[in-house]
Amino acid sequence: MLIVGHNEVRALLEEREQDILDLIARAYRLHGEGRSAVPHSVFLRFPEEPANRIIGLPAYLGGSEPVAGIKWIASFPGNVARGIERASASMVLNSMVDGRPEAFIESSLISAKRTGASAALAAGLLCAEPEPTGISLVGLGPINLEVLRFTTARLPSLRTATVYDLDTERAKVFAERARQVVPGLTVAVVDSAAAALGAHPLVSLATTAGRPHMDLSACQPEAAVLHVSLRDLTVAAVLDAQNVVDDADHVCRERTSLHLAELETGGREFVHAEIGTLLRGGSGFRREAGRRVVFSPFGLGVLDLVLARWVRDRANAEEVGVRVEGFLPGGAA
Question: What InterPro entries does UniProt report for this protein, alphabetically (predicted)?
Answer without folding.
Answer: NAD(P)-bd_dom_sf (IPR036291), ODC_Mu_crystall (IPR003462), ODC_N (IPR023401), SbnB (IPR023866)
